[in-house]
Amino acid sequence: MLKTFTKAALASSLLISLGGAASAAEQLQALAKDSANWAMPTGNYANWRYSELDKINKDNVSKMVPAWSFSTGVLRGHEGNPLVIGDTMYVHTPFPNIVYALDIKNDGVIKWKYEPKQDPNVIPVMCCDTVNRGVAYAPADGDRPAMVILDQADTTLVALNAETGEVIWSVKNGDASKGETGTMAPAVINDKVLVGISGGEFGVRGRMTAYNLADGKEAWKAYSTGPDKDMLIDPEKTTELGKPVGADSSLKTWEGDQWQIGGGATWGWISYDPELNLVYYGTGNPSTWNPAQRPGDNKWSMTINARDADTGEAKWVYQMTPHDEWDYDGVNEMILADVSVDGKDHKALVHFDRNGFAYTLDRETGELLVAEKYDPAVNWATKVDMDKSSKTYGRPLVVDQYSTENNGEDVNTTGICPAALGTKDQQPAAYSPDTKLFYVPTNHVCMDYEPFRVAYTAGQPYVGATLSMYPAPNSHGGMGNFIAWDAGTGKIVWSLPEQFSVWSGALATKGGIVFYGTLEGYLKAVDAKTGEELYRYKTPSGIIGNVMTYENDGKQMVGILSGIGGWAGIGLAAGLTDPNAGLGAVGGYASLSKYTALGGQLTVFTVPDQTASK
Q1: Which Pfam families does the annotation name (predicted)?
Q2: At what angle do helices 24-33 and 7-19 cross, to 10 degrees?
């Protein structure tokens, strides 16, 4: 069979032929560096969501038109984005988690289709729609063919032959009968694939697991809570804010054996620094949502983790929201970039947390450099204490008025900002090395929150709170903003108000533009420096997917999945009408039904006559 090679694929093949020394990881990095591809879920290991392509740019993006489209055949929320390797695009869907391989040389003709047979009983234990955030690609290595790796809703991690779609290996990563589900995009790192677990609303015990690419066997597993050995924490070597965490750091912060059902799910994005050989990811909310039932800091939920990619051993951790009282999951992406803070350059990690604070840390040491609100409406805490001599250093200073524990069980605490879905949920931000700015989709939403006592039963919701959501008061009246952020100073550079939350992942490009989608279904392009809107197009359904770009026959293409759903669109996706349903989101986003309807579609755009930006 004649195969078309990208420049990066050709370079990888030459490396192999010259010495056989190119590992799968080296090949994957080479593929990612070739902007003709979109080889990783977030574009590169640093989670930049940035492309060097500039044939679509701020001078000609206004002429962008749809080139072709593809219906996925599924009507729930479409999060994540396709991958493109050479001439093939790999597209995923929500449950039942179909994977398509499409021929981009032929307007998306289907090369193969994989449709797993899953028990539909997994659907009721999926918290916030039946979403899936994408597949990973593993280049061929020795006798093993290239693979596409999918994390199915029922927690089956499956490796598919990238050429044929045939199953090479599969492994069960969890137990759906206990509320454990799979929604995240796996990450291929070195000779392993890393995957987490969803189910924080069912009292799961969160963890990150690495499986060998060769055969799917478990390589290491790091729990979010429990004994040090289970968490792969060395009490003397693992640090938080520069100090050893000490023995039993998690056990001491839970009552009895609550840590066994303590949450800390790991369904977000993973980044990787090859030079440090460290992987970074966040852990989610503690279970239950009623804070009175779980006294203590509940470590290590709500935590940024830096771990050795080969062994899983934790180098450093940082808990952003100790004893979470608001469901401010800490799973959002970690973006790795060089950032100057107070005149000093750092190999930094930048994280936009659900709790409304944007954090800049030194990714090698875990030193906290910046922690500032990235939405002025945030009110549950006044600030993060940055005084290194203070007993509360690194902790948010909570306002009693908005503390659900302070106000007590069965008391409705009102006016908390942000709402439980956070100032930003999992929808990933982008970073441009050209402007040194971060482009962040945000929620401008507040809530009322009433905790109540709840008992744990395996496989049943373990929430214990009633919520309602609404736009931030005394503001622009909408529920979202798209912002540009300076991570060195902790300040908003520009902000675009949106009628609804921006639930789409962003894309920055060398062409001086940033793309994002809206819940009404618009794909938008704005000037990276000023935020000026340059283009918009209404796709068939609301966008909660992430914008990506690639090159085909010398032309830059832009792709986006549309299909309303996710937490913000759960009312439409699941046909819910009770305002308190969907953990409070149904009422908050009730008017969304006037602007869009269900659908599942990939739309690919291009500019007919392209020239690189000057």
Answers
A1: PQQ
A2: 150
Pairing of strands 522-527, 136-138: unpaired
**Residue among 178, 225, 183, 221 at smallest CA distance from 203:** 178
Q: Which residue carries 């819940």 as its tokens?
A: 519
- Mean per-residue pLDDT, 62-76: 97
Q: What's the whole-number mean pLDDT along residues 225-237?
A: 98
Kindly provide the b/e burial profile for residues 508-528, where b requires at least 16 CB atoms within 10 angstroms of the residue's own CB: bbbbbbbbbbbbbbbbbbbbb
Residue of 34, 327, 329, 362 with catalytic role: 327
The size of the chain, in residues, is 614
Map residue 386 onto helix, strand or coil. Answer: coil
Mean pLDDT for the stretch of residues 160-183:
97
Q: Is 59 a catalytic residue?
A: no
pTM more than 0.90? yes
Q: Which residues contact 496 (CB under 8 A, 6 or more apart)?
A: 481, 482, 483, 526, 531, 533
Lay out the sheet containing 271-273: strands in order across.
Answer: 243-244, 239-240, 314-319, 303-308, 278-282, 271-273
pLDDT band at 388, cuts 50/70/90?
Answer: very high
User: In the numeric block, which tokens belong to residue 115?
Assistant: 């449709």
Distance (Å, rounded) from C-alpha 253 to C-alpha 238?
Answer: 17
The SS3 assignment for 432 reads strand
- 530-563 as b/e: b if 16+ CB within 10 A: ebeebbebebbbbbbbbbbbbbbeebbbbbbbbb
Best CA proximity match to 280, nearest among 367, 366, 170? 366
CA distances from 511 to 261, 435, 508 (A): 48, 11, 8
Nearest to 515 by CA among 559, 473, 475: 559
